[in-house]
Amino acid sequence: MTPKPLLKYLLALSCSLPLFTSAQINPKLTSYVNPFIGTGAVKGSLSGNNYPGATVPFGMVQLSPDTRDEPEWDAACGYDHNDNFIAGFSHTHLSGTGAPDLFDILFMPYTGDEKTRAGNAQQAGSGYGSRFSHDHESARAGYYQVKLDDYGINVELTATEHAGFHKYTFPKNSQGRVVIDLNHSTKKPNFGCHVIAAQFHMVNDHAIEGFRVITGWAKLRKVYFYTEFNKPVKSNDLIDGGTQYFDQKLLNGTDLRAVLNFNTGDGSPLLAKVGLSTVSTQNAKLNLVTEIPGWDFNQTVAQANAKWETELDKIKVEGTEQQKQIFYTALYHTCIQPNNYADVNGDYTAIDYTVHNSKAGFYSTFSLWDTYRAANPLYTLIQPQRTAGFVNSMLSQYQAYGYLPIWQLWGQENYCMIGNHAIPVIVDAALKGIPGFDIRKAYEAVKNSSTTDHPGSPFKAWEKYHYMPENVLTQSVSVTLEMAYDDWCVAQLAKKLNKTADYAHFMERSQYFKNLYDTQSGFFRAKNNDGKWLSPFNPLQYGGNGGNPYTEGNAWQYYWYVPQDVKGLIALTGGDSKFTAKLDTFFTLDSKPGEVNGNASGFIGQYAHGNEPSHHITYLYNYAGQPWKTQYYVAKICRELYNTSSSGYAGNEDCGQMSAWYVFSAMGFYPVNPASSVYVIGTPVMRKVVMQLPLNKKFTVLAPNSSADNIYIQSAKLNGKAYTHTFITQQDITSGGTLEFVMGPKPNEHWGVALADRPVK
Amino acid sequence: MTPKPLLKYLLALSCSLPLFTSAQINPKLTSYVNPFIGTGAVKGSLSGNNYPGATVPFGMVQLSPDTRDEPEWDAACGYDHNDNFIAGFSHTHLSGTGAPDLFDILFMPYTGDEKTRAGNAQQAGSGYGSRFSHDHESARAGYYQVKLDDYGINVELTATEHAGFHKYTFPKNSQGRVVIDLNHSTKKPNFGCHVIAAQFHMVNDHAIEGFRVITGWAKLRKVYFYTEFNKPVKSNDLIDGGTQYFDQKLLNGTDLRAVLNFNTGDGSPLLAKVGLSTVSTQNAKLNLVTEIPGWDFNQTVAQANAKWETELDKIKVEGTEQQKQIFYTALYHTCIQPNNYADVNGDYTAIDYTVHNSKAGFYSTFSLWDTYRAANPLYTLIQPQRTAGFVNSMLSQYQAYGYLPIWQLWGQENYCMIGNHAIPVIVDAALKGIPGFDIRKAYEAVKNSSTTDHPGSPFKAWEKYHYMPENVLTQSVSVTLEMAYDDWCVAQLAKKLNKTADYAHFMERSQYFKNLYDTQSGFFRAKNNDGKWLSPFNPLQYGGNGGNPYTEGNAWQYYWYVPQDVKGLIALTGGDSKFTAKLDTFFTLDSKPGEVNGNASGFIGQYAHGNEPSHHITYLYNYAGQPWKTQYYVAKICRELYNTSSSGYAGNEDCGQMSAWYVFSAMGFYPVNPASSVYVIGTPVMRKVVMQLPLNKKFTVLAPNSSADNIYIQSAKLNGKAYTHTFITQQDITSGGTLEFVMGPKPNEHWGVALADRPVK
């Protein structure tokens, strides 16, 4: 269960892939990506819910093993490193979400003889899975390999943006089979998930196509596929539930499996290429033949690797081997989503179930409550073009749906979590001047999304009560705090566009958080619409996702959520010293009464790094003149709550947010207010960082003596000049330059403490 | 509850619609259409499950009142003449089916003041319906009117192919409102019916658009709409479940209602035009503005009426006023479906949930187990162009789905009933030389649909056992008989295309019915795949739709289902006299042991005119030399089991089949074998029939002395020459000509009895 040492990992690669041996000479950055990090808890510890399969940056296809027939909440990505069984390889996955969905078009090779062919329908009920061992499993960016112990089959997988490429090496003299399962993952109670309609169509003896229309966490998804094999299908068994159809060309139903039989006795590999589309089998075919026209598996592996290298190359770091593995795997994870669901010709199924077309692509999987905090700000630095694509995709939901995404999955809104955090993402992109979208349309969208009542967003009540009453909308304290932040973002864009009245109005709304501040308890507390505090109150009491004023957390954790007005929060708390004292208590108070929400993990006192509400809190010491405490806790988290094991994350990866936290923090700064263009300095973990930026600019962070001992900033220079601010700006970075730190084992309690040096004065 | 006399009906029309008063001077054929016929059982008798609303021939929109919030099996068309409550007016309905579905986009006008506006959300739960009385209700082809007693609102409705047109006359000084309900009809257990997603979007103060995506009898339907009003929407309340949103532009959800408030105090009518589409709101708008560009309600009524006049004008009849009402209402009902679901630009959502385009339209609602018997043969005579459209639409399912429709609803297969009766429909059209489709593609489709295993059609078992074993597929006797008939149809097309081997093979399959003939009991009986008769056996025992060898009937009713080889059936029975004696018993034996299936009704002995398996049986006497008994029973059914009341049908109308039976039989002949181009002569009910045919041909049937007493054919002439055959052919009809009958009160037991005169020699 321990993570693979890099050497063993590279060795495995060199055996299976001659192309890649060059990596040993000039190690590519992709060689530091270990897709097994975060794939499974070690001895009851924590995991990221990451999957190890093959994908390309921001691609629609994530081809990965599912270690359960019916992946549930605890293996929402489909894979758990603790399992020793593989049900098959499905083409779509979510990276580190709390809820399971997708798992489309499962392929599984197996072996059998003619005699057992008649038993395929019976076997369908129990699956075609195989045991496997991590000893015979490997993965890197864009490539996954495993030996299926029950069949002796070596499986290799790679991917393009819209297609998966499978390579199955069967034992000699075996009768090779491939089952395609269109009902995989649906036999569980979550979200009433079930297949409404599905189809297989044997196009010819080398090709099969089909689709499944399925309900789930995404209300309704259409998934079309087109598959080609390098060998002819000798015979096929199409199966609907318990009924088997021999050598039939076509089958419609809801519980469909296809078993395809091949001549594999000569030991030459069976290759399968699978194109996906949300629109039609024709488009799935177009995607496939465009992206994988030939049969050179290694070439596709190399192309996937090159795409990853291009993305990772945007940030070059120096540090320990372990740090580089953590860093580049984290950077890799941030680029797994959002996913471009548009076909190569631009077609995609939109939120109103009509076909739209966008030549620039259409991105989905917006886990915004998580990613607006750090993942999206990171994209503004290293993915400006895609950031415009994300914004335009979110604006297209606004056009068709009337408001921006809250949690968009497969192009559809599932209303998961609270707030409207497409707003900070879009405002941040607009204020940073990311080109490629219409800033006026963006303003229309963020404003209307802040005034149009919709599920989880009763703005008329917000405007009426100036806080969110718990009896109007549960999770009301968290909602009030996060809504006030979103309002501040709207105000900033209004200001930029000289919309004075709007600016004033939304700035007023951004202060509503104060209406839930209870001076007596010293916490943000819930009220009903009668204006009275809800009692009893216990600041340690946890809420989940409803029925309690706090979202996946407690009053202690939500106390700190005023990123738009930390100064105001400090004032409410009673000034700097009371504020830092309260932070000290927060990081040391480890009582956990009642049921701790499953998302809360990675504790330091009340701080829970495993969930997003805590993510900015370590950085708040800077605002009150004690930056060395920020440095202490950030270093502690970077060095203790991330590692290279399958348990390398302190909680769900959440579509890149846990990784983005590390990427930023390891570089030395973090976007506490993610739409402010300001990054608050923590402590650099890497000895050197070079960020490649647009217009051929480079931003370098040097901390040559950073180490596990030297976690404290002694002094800093920006572009050669002494630098005492505990923050840097977007412009500091994008203009290019060098930020240098001298680190030491003891706090320098004079650096960065002056009022003028603080992120907010 | 008694039907409206024609005079009262015409009077009502003349009051409300000046345009139509001309009908009193030169009665149009549409004046004989009484849409209330068959809309509700009178005193526990029978009904056709017809709806009285407004539609145009073969149009997508059927705008009709729903007298229940949740129409169930017993009011599957949405309307029961026994009800005194209207829930609203929805835009899509099924005419006389056994199962409920559609009921899309319900509109309901009502009145209320500002004070009660806040109560709309509460009211949403209980509905906005109103009481009504048949005294203030009227309908004709393409027009429906009712006074809503609770509100004093006069509602008038008309339709085009893709749009509904509403005219609401509110009381003076009232506050007029219209609710649009997107969740109407879903709160019932049938087929797991529920809304997956829905949307309202206030386009401007005169327009609202939206959609609902819904599961049901059709697995998944997308219904988009676009509505324009002639008055501005003063204010709106959008409602999702129990939550009300005031004056919001847009709402997404699953339990959606929109309440729109208008200034109606001046008493001028509020007009609403509603376009529908399966593709998008844009297409719904295109449909609307193309078909109803202006605001002239009366003009749309007149256009709808003219369309109906064109269809009805294809058969001119002379008879009693009541006979003409029955006849033209029946002819009207045959033209309500199949429906053209393609938008005016040809777009439609196909069976694989992709958007297809067919400039010639795309027809759906194929209740083929019912309509292949007589409705489709009728279309070959008076709707040849649409018949080609029907065939091409069915072939497009074959292309996308691998086999032809069994029961196609809203473009989707629901596998209702047994057999593959698109085959006789297509073969019939091909053999009759209907132009406009590719006969070779048609053959490919019928052959592959007869060899590709699919739900309800295990052809490998059929080929293996040479009958359908009950333990392979239930309803096996009915399946065996109907499958054998379909096979005969395939053989006929194979023969025409000189596919000799196919012809021989399918002719052999068409004889498999003999393998279930039990000489001991003298009935078709079920076997399991062990080849043994299932026991005990009771020929009176009813089956429903599974779990019994007989489909919605018993062994007595299915005994007669060998239309492809009546001669063979006569031989099995033991010759003419045993055959006619068995028919005599059939029509007089009235025991009904066990539970009679709900579809069995309209009994004469074991004969059940209310369901399709019986429909051809009266005509079988002709095959055994006793045509006067055919004449007796056909006359009895025409004169006793059809009338002009709301209970005017002896059972479900079944999408035109009950009506087509009457249209044919009242003219004097019926397609016993619907793909043989042969019509068997019964007894003419009409004194004169003139059928307008392609190439400007006319076929006339004269029976000047036909009456309730004179039901027996004394002699006949075809084109002036003595005619003793008890059948005519498609060519006799389409060549044009005159068939004359002399009728009398007593059988002429010499006419039509010779072997040479029988439909099969």
Automatic annotation (TrEMBL), chains A, B:
Q: Which cofactor does it need?
A: Ca(2+)
Output the InterPro entries linked to this UniProt entry: 6-hairpin_glycosidase_sf, GH-type_carb-bd, GH92_a_mannosidase_put, GH92_N, Glyco_hydro_92, PNGase
| Keyword terms | Calcium, Hydrolase, Signal
Domain of life, source organism: Bacteria
Gene3D superfamilies cross-referenced by the UniProt entry: 2.70.98.10, alpha-1,2-mannosidase, alpha-1,2-mannosidases domains, GH92 mannosidase domain
Q: Which residues form a coiled coil?
A: none
Residues making up the signal peptide according to the UniProt record: 1-23
**Calcium recorded as keyword:** yes
What Pfam family does this protein match (any one)? Answer: Glyco_hydro_92
| GO molecular-function term, one example from the UniProt record | hydrolase activity
Give the Glycosyl hydrolase family 92 N-terminal domain ranges: 32-277
Glycosyl hydrolase family domain location is 283-745
**Where does the chain cross the membrane?**
none
Quaternary organization = Monomer.
Entries under PANTHER family matching the protein: PEPTIDE N-GLYCANASE PNGASE -RELATED, SECRETED PROTEIN
| Protein name listed in UniProt | GH92 family glycosyl hydrolase
- Organism whose genome encodes this protein: Mucilaginibacter dorajii
Its ancestry begins with: Bacteria, Pseudomonadati, Bacteroidota, Sphingobacteriia, Sphingobacteriales
